Amino acid sequence: MPKQSNTSSSEARRGNGPADEAYLKLVGERVRVMRLQMGMSRKALSQASGVSERYLAELERGTGNASLLVLRSIADALGTQVHELTVEEQNRPVDTTLAIQHLENLSAAQAIEARQMLTDRFGRKAPSRVARIAIVGLRSAGKNEFGNALAEALQVPFVDLDREVERASGIGVSEIYAVHGEAVFQRLQKECLGNLLNGMPRGVIHSGGDIVTSEETYDLLFAGCLVVWVRASLDEILNGGSDDNQSDGERLAVTAMQPKLEAALAERTPLYEKADAIVDTTGRPVEDAVSDVLEQIRQKAARRERIVA
Length: 309
What we know:
The protein has 309 residues and is of the alpha/beta class. Helices cover 64% and strands 7% of the residues.
């Protein structure tokens, strides 16, 4: 039996009648509209659903015919049901279509502002990024203490992403690196973060210092959380937890770490600086650092209110 070409198989699967083409465009447009209403980039939807950006682009253009399982993954990521994506209905009003086209021509910053205005005016609220706060920064910068105190002040759960990775894998982070390598750890880290964002509406997430080096995972963090960079002076990071009874060997170990930490800080600082809020814990009580971040969050909220008004 002769083997069918990929083209003919694809056309048979998609359907080639005008009604079929119109229906695929209807479903694709609905996915795009819901994504925009949720304030999600196509990359964020890809990360949350596990569907490639290229396939999502084809689907939104009406040139891709997604399976039910793929549609279910997309619907879950959008917080909706499959039938809301696939139900047939009359064409969208012209004004709605024109509004969507206008939104698509906005810059990223303008789109964020427009989404906030529409959300505040018409009341369809996507999950707030402020409802989840993610902590980034070098190890020993005081992230754990700060995160716990922030979660207590906000009365929300505090979750350590590395512990979630260990729970999912059944082994420690150091063992994952030693046995499976960095690529496997980063895949597990991304999967566990996605699970947290899907299942935890409010909370503080303590992330590993290297999460910023994985572009997709860092983008996912920004898509679902307000990100706070907890920083400290290099001296404080190197000497954190030390005291006058520290042995000569311990002091030598700390000194040996300095070049590595300096290199890591130089590499990651531009990435950390993308954070929504920055707090320095050097020589200050954790309560002061928490108050500082809460004030930054309040100021951001006030600015958004002024824009809408």
